[in-house]
Specification:
With 302 residues, the chain is mainly α. The protein has a domain at 26-43 and 116-301: Four Helix Bundle (Hemerythrin (Met), subunit A) (Up-down Bundle). 72% of the residues lie in helices and 0% in strands. The protein is built from 15 helices and no strands. α12 packs antiparallel against α13 (249-269) and α13 (249-269) runs antiparallel to α14 (274-282). The longest helix is centred in the N-terminal third of the chain and has 25 residues, at 47-71. It is globular, with a radius of gyration of 20 Å. Mean pLDDT is 92; it is low at 1-5.
Length: 302
């Protein structure tokens, strides 16, 4: 039998590298970014910004996966869930993965260049924190907090995109992102801590053996309680923001649906099984979608 028939194609390796068949991670980035975009615009932000943020989110998440897999390739080969990733398994050269990541990030940057200077400036900060995250787990006891900042950077960029208008003057940069964006980012950071701790709970046994630092290891037997506390902090902070903005009832209805989903996740993770924790992580995007839908409908009825 021809051995090439059992070998994955070059295209399938690249698609596997960027998690083409697993878009849940992109949704986790997308929903808070779109929520911020709607809040910044006071409603529908226009097709241009909507499409740029959707396409840009998928591009940057894909680029991040490529960089992460290269950075973690020596660790991932010791983890059951990641041992067969293209770079880790040696099927795809690290330099090729980095070239693809750079190309995707460059395309995303071209999209940002069509908005305004404020968004461009914030995009550099977003890129820096995204590159730093894969290495944080070597030195930070809860690297999920670094990921939380990286996965929340769509929020200030959304405000910059709306408030900066079409200006390419430096004077438009400082006031483009209001304190509201910082509070939204803080709340969203707790959501990332919740779902990425669930993700870390899947690999805890392997991570302990190879010496990687994660929130699941740091929190120990308090992991489940902490995850639920993170969910609560996220929802309470966003509820306080909504109340302060005077958002209509659909926003709070969306938060209630999100809270119900978080409660369901407790039943999935309380026994700390790999399957339960991974399912909770994988379906977390529905929680984010519930909040986003609440924002959209609240601004429609306002």
């Amino acid at each position: 039998m021809n051995s090439s028939l059992s070998q994955p194609s070059r295209l399938s390796l690249y698609l596997n590298l960027i998690r083409w068949d697993r878009p849940a991670g992109s949704y986790l980035l997308l929903w808070p970014s779109l929520s911020a975009l709607w809040l910044a615009a006071g409603g529908f932000p226009g097709w241009k910004l909507l499409l740029i943020f959707i396409v840009g989110t998928f591009l940057m998440r894909s680029a991040g996966c490529a960089v992460n897999d290269v950075a973690d390739r020596e660790f991932d080969r010791h983890v059951k869930r990641t041992a067969q990733r293209p770079v880790t398994s040696g099927q795809l050269a690290a330099r090729n993965a980095l070239w693809l990541g750079a190309a995707l990030a460059a395309i995303a940057f071209v999209l940002v260049l069509t908005i305004n200077l404020a968004t461009v400036v914030w995009s550099f900060a977003a890129l820096a924190i995204s590159i730093a995250y894969p290495y944080a787990k070597r030195v930070v006891s809860m690297p999920q907090a670094v990921l939380g900042i990286a996965f929340s950077f769509g929020i200030p960029m959304a405000f910059a995109a709306v408030n900066g208008g079409d200006s390419w003057r430096w004077e438009s940069v400082p006031g483009a992102v209001p304190p509201l964006a910082g509070w939204l980012l803080l709340g969203n950071l707790f959501w990332v801590l919740a779902y990425d701790t669930e993700y870390a709970m899947v690999d805890r046994d392997d991570d302990l053996k190879i010496g990687i630092k994660t929130s699941a290891i740091t929190l120990g037997r308090f992991d489940v309680a902490a995850v639920m506390g993170f969910y609560a902090a996220f929802l309470l902070i966003w509820a306080a923001i909504g109340a302060g903005l005077g958002l209509a009832w659909p926003f709070f209805a969306g938060l209630l649906v999100a809270a119900a989903i978080a409660g369901w996740h407790f039943t999935l993770i309380r026994d700390r099984s790999r399957d339960g924790c991974f399912k909770a992580f994988r379906l977390n995007h529905w929680l984010g979608f519930a909040v986003f839908a609440g924002v959209v409908f609240a601004l429609q009825v306002a």
